Description:
- It contains 2 helices and 5 strands, in the order ββββαβα.
- The protein is of the alpha+beta class.
Amino acid sequence: MSVKIRLTRLGDKGNAFYRVVVAESRSPRDGKFIEVLGTFDPKAADPKTGIKVDKDKTMGWIAKGAQPTDTAKAVLVKAGIIPAEKFKAKPNAAPPKRAAPKKKKE
Length: 106
């Protein structure tokens, strides 16, 4: 069972409001979740006041192996819950090789 920290959408059309939740990766976006970690209001005047997340619960789930999605990661970094360097994308090992040119049959 893979566990993710992600956002579930609430609110009316054009007035989105999100919960930061811990959920199994196979459950739907607005479906069953394990625990609510906080809320995120993208329309708040000040970005810091629009994010209310419990730091202890979040760090506990990350220690247990929960992986934040890209959007949840951005919200947690903006809130100061996790450092930006901790979850940077891993660089690719090597660029893909080009195929060798095909030889013409004679």
